[in-house]
Amino acid sequence: MKRAPNISDVAARAGISRSTAARAMSGNGYVDSETKKIVEQAARELGYRRSAIARTLRTNRSDTVGILIADISNPIFPRIVKGADEVLAPEGMTLLLCNTEGDSVKQMAFVQKMLERQADGLILVSQSLPEAVTALLAGGPPSVFVNRRPDPDAFDYVGPDNVAGIEALLAHLSVAGHRHVGYIGGPENSSTARERLGAFQEAAPRFGIVSDPDLQLLREYDYGAEREGAAELLTRSGRITAIVASNDMAAMGVIAEARSRGLRVPEDLSVTGYDGAFREPMWESLYPDRPQLTTIGLPRRQIGVEAARLLLRRIKAPEAAVAKMILPIEMIAGNTTGPARPRS
Amino acid sequence: MKRAPNISDVAARAGISRSTAARAMSGNGYVDSETKKIVEQAARELGYRRSAIARTLRTNRSDTVGILIADISNPIFPRIVKGADEVLAPEGMTLLLCNTEGDSVKQMAFVQKMLERQADGLILVSQSLPEAVTALLAGGPPSVFVNRRPDPDAFDYVGPDNVAGIEALLAHLSVAGHRHVGYIGGPENSSTARERLGAFQEAAPRFGIVSDPDLQLLREYDYGAEREGAAELLTRSGRITAIVASNDMAAMGVIAEARSRGLRVPEDLSVTGYDGAFREPMWESLYPDRPQLTTIGLPRRQIGVEAARLLLRRIKAPEAAVAKMILPIEMIAGNTTGPARPRS
DNA sequence: CTGTTAGCGCGTTCAA
DNA sequence: TTGAACGCGCTAACAG
């Protein structure tokens, strides 16, 4: 088995020097259009393929961006990836995707691999961020954080307006007469969850809503965990007329729990989600009578687009000031919320 | 900004030669355990990181596998990826994921990138396979096809037993008394769709089911396209009592169409899916009263596992005989099928 | 516009 | 067990 042809082989076949052949193939520098044709012809005949590896070794640029996603099966993430791809692909950059499944070991492993492979940049979407990772990144390539960010604001960040989202939900519930609202937030290690909890605690009184720590739980962002959270809240207090869940999947868990206790939604209990994960055209018409969550819509594609732009900016200007980009959310009123009616 | 430390820097700091340091870091060849410690210490102090790029250039192995997925938001695919990762990760290989969205341009682009980056192998899941791609792959690294495969059996393949799946559905419908069954298959360019259509045509008579080409449509594997297909079938024939759709999402489209025409499922029309996409614990309890599709369950994780094993095998033995692995399916009876009852 | 030259960082002979 | 030397394939000066 012969080795793959390299630029020297092409040059030899074209009867020309290596560097001219290289210029012809890469498009950099001056090459006579006539000789360029000859070189391309020779390359085609040989089945020559440029080695991105050698190029990277030489230039320290890999034209590659690693993107870490917490959970690929959650429909909001593919949209973000797509948005990022839309801006990176035209720049000749390839997105390398990793599904971390919220596993910090996989997270570390992938970041390591990307560093070893000279990734030009990293986009971390909704990652839990142990110090080990941020430490690694501190000396590494440009990194942009999406949705969650590490503590010291040392990195570029793009995310939705969490405060506005919570306030919109509170306003909505308040108008419907809710006073006792259970809150299930995401875990402590999520900056997003911390922001939202802070917003809830700060804003609740302004909307005439009781802010009682007993009614505020922190759970993982998933169906099962928040379903259990709902069980706890409903057991703990008979006065709750609404529950704010931390995302749409989790809200479904809350609804399931409510129903299993004989509570109707929204007649007996109002439930809100967050992120609009089910607002896909397909879901829309899928179950005509399914619950239409009251939720906060996120500009998913735009989040991806802006993250990629921020990354490109930093690749070009590594010393630019750290950017923090907050994108507007959208309040979506569905049929899982209604007028408050005391439970007991 | 100084350049990143390399093996020479480490060697210098350890007071040792480059090659010894290299051996210490890579674990290849003999190194005194004492000097090894010293080298590792020096590396740590310098923040040294091995360059996968240089290593790949030197060895022609990148410890990287590219995996192409048609549609990442379809829940069956993450499972396949996970299965593959389970066997590849312990071998020190990294999976690089690409969502092709059924777009052959993206497909080609990613394959090209992977070739240029010396991927050790490729896994193509449910890809439509224009000749250009298979031609590219023919001279490339080991490739394994999943679900769909190119025409000449020149590549390793793993997929579910399509014939058994269709027969199981036919048997199920036949027992329920269905004679006029509409069939909506996947597109012509999908080997899976061709296999299933062939199985349907061959087996229908054996089950006392009419095989009329007028009742057999080929459509894209999606909600909208198959919903339209269902409209066509239902308009075309008043005798149809059941429709076999080509996957679960598509089946939902068929059901939606039926309902919009005032047909109840399964009382007036039985509908079957294929792939069990909604059979996730979360969906199970999500909508208590949602339709439970009668469908064919696929061994998703196992498909990924076997694909990865096949790939490893071929990487180690490039000349091994082409393998074709057919995995058993599972018949799942739901509540979208019932006794046949004439429509008109 | 073209050719010459010198590494990028590493793994791997081969001798010592 | 260690060290010296070479080259993987390419780009980027620089000189012509």
In which order are the strands of the major sheet of chain A placed?
A: 2-1-3-4-5-11
Count the E strands of chain A. Answer: 12
Q: Judging from the principal axes of the Cα atoms, what is the shape of chain A?
A: elongated
The fraction of residues assigned to DSSP E strands of chain A is 5-15%
Extract low-pLDDT stretches of chain A: none
Largest sheet of chain A: 6 strands, parallel
What is the N-to-C succession of helices and strands of chain A?
HHHHEHEHEHEEHEHEHEHEHEHEE
- Span between N and C termini of chain A? 80 Å
Largest inter-chain contact set: A-B, 45 and 45 residues
Rg for CA atoms of chain A: 26 Å
Helical percentage of chain A: 40-55%
- Specify the number of helices of chain A: 13
Structural class of chain A: alpha/beta
Say what oligomer this is. Answer: homodimer
Q: Which whole number gives the mean pLDDT of chain A? A: 91
